[in-house]
Prior knowledge:
Layout: E1 4-9, H1 13-23, E2 29-35, H2 43-46, H3 53-56, H4 58-68, E3 71-75, H5 85-88, E4 94-97, E5 103-104, E6 117-119, H6 120-127, E7 145-149, H7 153-163, H8 166-169, H9 176-185, E8 189-193, H10 205-212, E9 217-221, H11 230-238, H12 240-251, E10 260-265, E11 268-276, E12 279-291, E13 298-309, E14 312-315, E15 319-320, E16 338-339, E17 342-343, E18 352-355, H13 358-361, H14 369-388, H15 398-404, H16 412-428, H17 439-448
Parallel strand pairs: 1-2, 1-4, 2-3, 4-18, 6-14, 7-8, 7-14, 8-10, 9-10
Antiparallel strand pairs: 5-15, 11-12, 12-13, 16-17
Amino acid sequence: MDTIKVLIVGAGPSACYVVDALAKTDLPLSIDMIDRYPQPFGLLRTGVAPDHERIKSLDTYFGKILDQAPLKFYGNISFGSDITLDDVKDAYHAIFFCTGTESDNDVPGLDYSLSNVAGSRDVVEWYNGYTSQRTHFDPLSLGNNVGIIGMGNVALDIARIFLKEPVDLAKTEMPQSCIDIITQQHISDVHIFARRGPAQAKCTPLELAELLELDTIQTLLDPSSITLSDTDMVEYNETKRVQKNVDILKEVISTKSRSKRLHIHFCSQLKEAHVNDGAVNGVTMAKTILSGDPHQQQTTLTDESYHVPLTSLISSTGYKGAALPGIVFNEKTHCIPHEAGKITTQPKSSATYYCAGWIKRGPQGVIGTNKSGAKETVDSFVADVASFSSKSLQPFDLAKTLKQRNHTYYSYDDWKTQNDFEISEGEKKNKKRFKLTKITDIEHCLKTNS
């Protein structure tokens, strides 16, 4: 059998699991992988909280996968602009899209053009050292009284990073410039607003405990908001995660006074964000009530509301995928329609198209969840190999094409050089790693360490 040419768009965990599954097929493969970031591993670098070092360390595992595969990595390359579907559709036998979720679910009534209003994706990427252009978020506008809408793990990550002591953050790979800004904001209060009750909180018990166990914060929580209805009790008794979350919350209703405070508001939905002089300065939250069957309860707004002064507001109500040029997309689910990972509507071309990860199933599960999904997709690819392996492809050299377009890209060897430098410099600064995220810094590193 002739070599099967494969292109993978994206280099995060799902893409790495696809590479691993492809390598285990023992087929003769040649794999090109592109990613819009200069480095591989996606959300491990841009999304996982800097103080979650155990999860961050998965880059070593994924690095071994990429090391052992017949693969060439091209970082700093965006599909749809730097490389288009027309460029690649007849140049590869198979194309895998592993592009994850690009943006936040917006909260109705929020003006994201304001500098002190942001989606969680922008905030998370910022404290990981990456600058996003999705909104006009300015970390210098955070102020000392931050509101967060949502109670999933990402919301708790943000709250924890904002409330944690700078000396503890300094040991992580979080850029010192970000730590300095958080310190300068003198964040004293973080408010978390959850639309439903404690039994419906989306966070995991591990994340919740990690936040509430910070010894520098006082947790303020209305004891009556932890009272469960009969329907809530069914959810409590049937779901271990709910049990643990509620039990953790009950334990911390009364905490000692501290200089930093965490306020948790359940059954609260945004009614109005108050704007003055081009910035949000507070919110009016409407109280909600729940009704319906266990695990399917819906909220209804009540006439009761309350006001909270804020210096900034962050929404963290989930992520959604973005359409890729020329590829079928479901605007309701924000995913690529597929059957076992094979894209249902195939563009007319020599390539056969597949998807994996969050762009396939939505933002669900943990990093390891991607492994089984990637295998399912690669199984579909293997089943199709006989139908496309003998196809004649157009001559195409990705590296040569990018050079002809004067577009700077970074290879896997470039990443290895960066990685060695980041770890070495981190040790000198008593950090896990000294992260390079700006192109100018990456270029300087490669020139001085080549």
